[in-house]
Q: What sequence folds into this?
């Protein structure tokens, strides 16, 4: 079997939330990346404080990693929606895949209750809240205070990880099929293309 192509995720959050939760936001990043990496070694989850080094042009690094990402994890809190860069990152990713299947690769992590997000009448004035409210989110609000120590918290994180692994493997199969089959179809080799499809579906 060919090695899997790198799978990049982007973790978008408000830094003050990490401070106010005594590092629980960064801890969630570490746990989630670890759970996914156990099943999907090719996965990395970008976080600015870890992956942007001294001397980097940070805006360029953010955009580079964001544009390379196939998974996007917005950490939803009231602060998240107030921060320009959180909004910019989210809108850039959503715009890239708007109307496509990869929109499923936006996995909101709902961390701190936000009334303007919860209530349709209030979020109507915020296009970004409206867009994110259409997506199924992972509710982690009840686990923040315990800093992810309980069995329920670990189960919730593992559920997110399983979703990511499933989507990534589906995308990898589609990528492999496209790489192998498209040239054959272009050359008119229909029987060979069908054989490649059967073999890759069986892996």
A:
């Amino acid at each position: 079997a060919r090695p899997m192509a790198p799978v990049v995720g982007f973790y978008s959050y408000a830094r003050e939330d990490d401070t106010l939760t005594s590092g629980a936001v960064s801890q969630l990043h570490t746990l989630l990346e670890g759970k996914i990496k156990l099943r999907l070694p090719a996965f990395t989850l970008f976080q600015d404080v870890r992956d942007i080094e001294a001397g980097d042009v940070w805006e360029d690094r953010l955009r580079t990693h964001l544009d390379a990402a196939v998974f996007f994890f917005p950490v939803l809190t009231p602060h998240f929606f107030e921060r320009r860069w959180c909004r910019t990152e989210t809108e850039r990713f959503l715009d890239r895949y708007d109307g496509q299947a990869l929109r499923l690769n936006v996995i909101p992590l709902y961390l701190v209750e936000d009334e303007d997000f919860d209530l349709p009448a209030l979020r109507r004035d915020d296009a970004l809240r409206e867009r994110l409210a259409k997506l199924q989110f992972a509710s982690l609000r009840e686990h923040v205070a315990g800093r992810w120590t309980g069995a329920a918290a670990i189960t919730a994180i593992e559920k997110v990880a399983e979703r990511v692994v499933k989507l990534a493997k589906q995308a990898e199969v589609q990528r492999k099929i496209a790489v192998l089959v498209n040239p054959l179809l272009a050359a008119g080799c229909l029987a060979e293309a069908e054989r490649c499809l059967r073999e890759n579906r069986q892996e």
Notes: The radius of gyration is 19 Å. DSSP finds eleven helices and five strands in the chain. The CA atoms of residues 101 and 198 lie 23 Å apart. The longest strand covers residues 7-12.
